[in-house]
Amino acid sequence: MKKILFQSDYNEGAHPAILEALVTTNMEQTPGYGEDTHCRHAAELIKEACQASDADVHFLVGGTQANVTVISSILRPHQGVVCAASGHIHVHETGAVEHGAHKVLALPQHDGKITAEQVDTFVSAHYADESTEHMVQPGMVYISFPTEFGTLYSRSELLALSHVCHKYDMPLFIDGARLGYGLQSSSCDITLPELATLADVFTIGGTKQGALFGEAVVIVSDRLKKDFRYHIKQNGGMLAKGRLLGIQFEVLFADDLYFRLARRADMQAQRIRQAFAAKGIPFLIDSPTNQQFPILDAPSLQQLALSFGFSLWEKVDDTHTAVRFCTSWATADEAVDTLCQAIAKL
Amino acid sequence: MKKILFQSDYNEGAHPAILEALVTTNMEQTPGYGEDTHCRHAAELIKEACQASDADVHFLVGGTQANVTVISSILRPHQGVVCAASGHIHVHETGAVEHGAHKVLALPQHDGKITAEQVDTFVSAHYADESTEHMVQPGMVYISFPTEFGTLYSRSELLALSHVCHKYDMPLFIDGARLGYGLQSSSCDITLPELATLADVFTIGGTKQGALFGEAVVIVSDRLKKDFRYHIKQNGGMLAKGRLLGIQFEVLFADDLYFRLARRADMQAQRIRQAFAAKGIPFLIDSPTNQQFPILDAPSLQQLALSFGFSLWEKVDDTHTAVRFCTSWATADEAVDTLCQAIAKL
Amino acid sequence: MKKILFQSDYNEGAHPAILEALVTTNMEQTPGYGEDTHCRHAAELIKEACQASDADVHFLVGGTQANVTVISSILRPHQGVVCAASGHIHVHETGAVEHGAHKVLALPQHDGKITAEQVDTFVSAHYADESTEHMVQPGMVYISFPTEFGTLYSRSELLALSHVCHKYDMPLFIDGARLGYGLQSSSCDITLPELATLADVFTIGGTKQGALFGEAVVIVSDRLKKDFRYHIKQNGGMLAKGRLLGIQFEVLFADDLYFRLARRADMQAQRIRQAFAAKGIPFLIDSPTNQQFPILDAPSLQQLALSFGFSLWEKVDDTHTAVRFCTSWATADEAVDTLCQAIAKL
Amino acid sequence: MKKILFQSDYNEGAHPAILEALVTTNMEQTPGYGEDTHCRHAAELIKEACQASDADVHFLVGGTQANVTVISSILRPHQGVVCAASGHIHVHETGAVEHGAHKVLALPQHDGKITAEQVDTFVSAHYADESTEHMVQPGMVYISFPTEFGTLYSRSELLALSHVCHKYDMPLFIDGARLGYGLQSSSCDITLPELATLADVFTIGGTKQGALFGEAVVIVSDRLKKDFRYHIKQNGGMLAKGRLLGIQFEVLFADDLYFRLARRADMQAQRIRQAFAAKGIPFLIDSPTNQQFPILDAPSLQQLALSFGFSLWEKVDDTHTAVRFCTSWATADEAVDTLCQAIAKL
After folding, report:
1. Which of A247, A299, B162, D59 is 20 to 30 A from D332 in CA distance terms?
2. Same domain, yes or no, for A243 and A272?
3. Which residue from A77, D178, A66, A117 is spatially nearest to B61, judged by alpha carbons?
4. CB within 8 Å: B10 and A64
5. How large is the ipTM?
6. Cβ distance of C232 and A133 shorter than 8 Å
7. Which of residues 67-106 of B touch D (CB under 8 A)?
8. A317 and A250 housed in the same domain
């Protein structure tokens, strides 16, 4: 029997409505590089959803690409990007930020997050140091929402981060590769329009939330807008058939689909979470979104691995391993049922 | 009435067989990042077509990305890439190669091409110079096949280039963004397996030849293979749902489709070419592939612009402009008929 | 007998007054990194000489370092630096600018120079292009004064370049590695204070004009001043014992020494020039400064090479070679006498 | 009264013998860029001292420059350099390594050091990870000897590091900015020739040990030697009057001067250390070399600051600060006497 994969939120293709739109529009003739009507329309839909009519919206293929393009467009050479030590740009992008010639200034994380106070202490220490110019200048702050551990910043935490960023003239960049799962979580106390007032630039991930691929970059701050398309092209992110991105985001944002899919995935994840909790299985971290990190003993791990795919996250001790189960727009009720039954039998 | 676009070879979506395959496979669960069975199968098909069973095949989304990833993986910091002054990497990639910290060493082009003799003269002059180490060392050679002007290197020209590259220990990289159009041209005297013995690494373009997107990188030389996946990831080219690339190339290489589509587009281009020639309209360059560059006087240009889309290429004199018409897998017979009739009426 | 070297303007150590100052100050205790009183004093002297009291003055060790630090501090990632194809940064710095991730946008040179009209045409074509963002954006202009061929821009040429730079919001950077030789040439029609109003940033070379080493970077434009010391450090140009640079420039600018030395070297070069001209020997280029480029036939070249060192510049034809003779602060009258006699005997 | 500075080991100029040599050789005419007889001779002396007759020796101006040139010459783009979190390249070079496009892979330090075991664990974890290619590959190891805290690796620690480096095919680079102070310390159990068999490449610092400036790079491993001069030039480290470096190292290595000066400075530092210890003042770290890090309470700090210069290192608690006192070749007996008396009176 084929295993059911919960390894990631990109194990399947795209939501059927997206495929359908690609088929329907296939023989349309459009200009390339994102200068078509679909991209324009999708951008309008996103600006409406963000209540940010002055924002610039661009579409890129992947997350690493989007991160490095945004960061590279903002920083001057002597500046680095502040982030949590668990931040995706620090850990899992093969040094793409450094390949773009900038240091990642990693701060200790707690639940995948950093605090405004940490940032304030770090940046003020930089400017207070006798040899300031011998050190990389903090030039911007990167956070992910939800974090790599599925956790969420609260509204007040984001507000405080936004304040400290402005205090030191550092743009705040929110990596929203899984933004929908965050905003739709029952634990989330912030809306997309609110988030758009706190971030200077952020992404809305499509790849992990129903699209074949695609990340929307929303640039809120005027001073970050200039020449962004040059940066996209330079970083290899300008898709020849750019409309593919526009068409996908048109579908996702046309009818609240993006958020409906995320909400459902979050609920599936909560079902899985409860199944583990019911067995007294602890979690590496308390995640309210679509990623769950139970800590399994060796027999349980082996047992579940017979029928399910999931990611090994980290060794907790000699006999226990934290693993990751992800849900997505594509996770079927039956798949979760089967998993929960298997958990109950552990 | 809507204009018929001949602006580029990426004005439409994908060949229907590709869309169909994406729909069919949509709910399959696979691992990400190109480690799925579709990618493996597509790689096998390509190695067969190249008769290069030891080659490594990787799939990237776009051409600039593929170029910069290949180049960045090969060169040491003090080395540059030799190419024609008209080379895509020199002119139209927003300095992506330089953003990756390497100089493009541009040589004068003729019909979009450089010769082995030019390369030999240039490289031997470098090593003969008193201040060799004050100059960028030529580390590899980049050519495009067909070139940016639609022209082709002959077999003997490629053989000579390959020789001079080996003489100076410089890998030869062939950018095959439009490889099919080249190989299927009636003027082409080289086969894909032959090309695969002359290049150290080359690409097989999908984006302009029937795919939604995608470039296959074929690494022939053993010493260029190590750690290439790190470079893909670092350059933002590792697609989460990597199978999308595998599925597309499976379709293109399953049934000779890639070459059949290219052959047909080349023939459509020759029909257009003959229509211009029949009117005594000259060409900027003599192209045997899917791009045609007639030189139009102002009234003809205006007349054609009413019903057709095409690219302005360069001003030839005060009253004449070279323009570009492209055909592709998607060019309908009727579209070419309509264009040829309009040309006849100029 | 030892050959007399005219190979470069850095064949000897430093002017004795500089060595003396280094000896005198040797046991002073000062803070490092250019934050000592000598550096401050030298900066004041230079600002006075430039009549630019608001300028920032920094001291770096070498020319390539100064060029790359200035350029890297100015450009955004998608921008390149416009220069003559013969520009030092394009030809003889092992791609240091590209290693810093920027493209050098080389324009055809005439006598080592580019014109305001060339720049205007190039930049306006960039912005007019349909695919502007697919090309590197011209972000600044680099010229050398004197040029690599010893030639000079006239005041009106510089004025025009300055105008076109401002028109497109591109800083004008003048590489003054041999600035003194230029300003003291009898053909020069511009003063240092005038030059300081036309450039946004420029260097005053010490290495080739009497110092052991050292280039002063003069930043005139306010918007280029911020955080420059970070860039110096990042580019490896912050000398621990920074005072060594201050002390040397104090001596050079204390008593007009810098200009007196340059004037004398220019006169020695003119003597050499007249000796060649008197024999009917042609020149590759008409240089009014300390570098002379006679074109020698093979027997003359061999004859002179017995007793003198000079640089081979370029082959002119099968039997003639352009060579370079340099004078400097250290060129003795007797050395020039001996050379002129040898030339007369050819 | 002028304060006596113990702030750094580069508060003065150069040892008088070096100045004398510069004066004596001043009017010699030599070729530039390190291709003169002084550089060749100095390289020979260093190879003798290292008993490494096959090594390549190059001379660069400064430490950051030397570090970034060595690292940039070794790593491929997807690789990073492993070092202690306190390593100079990670903390105090304004991200020069990242500006050169490589990540610094910082490991937790103990007394400024990392262990072979740490490196082994880190690197084996990298290769064991499911998503290896999503992370920067460890490509080399950097340590400083002595460390930034003045501490020393023992012979067995170095041997173990060398082993683990070879196990993973990672060159070991030892930053010897203060190498002499390390080798001459009474706590040191390794000789220069032994060190030269364990490192693949290392530097011998001149700037902090009697020279005006200058770092010798000693390349032991054959495979790291190729084309190194290109890298020097590209990184702005090729001094036009390169002989200045050769002359200085000739003096330092001609008569054991380098080591005699270091030994004396170490002894002066031990006198200072004992003075603090005699008062029961604790140290941040137990340093056997020329840097001492006593922890002062506020009144003591204020008292000493009246007459002496020293560096503030880090706050230990609300009322205590660790500071740094450095000795050097230039530290006079009387200066240390005065300091010790002042300490005794605290």
Report:
1. D59
2. no
3. A66
4. no
5. 0.96
6. yes
7. 72-73, 76-78, 100-101
8. no
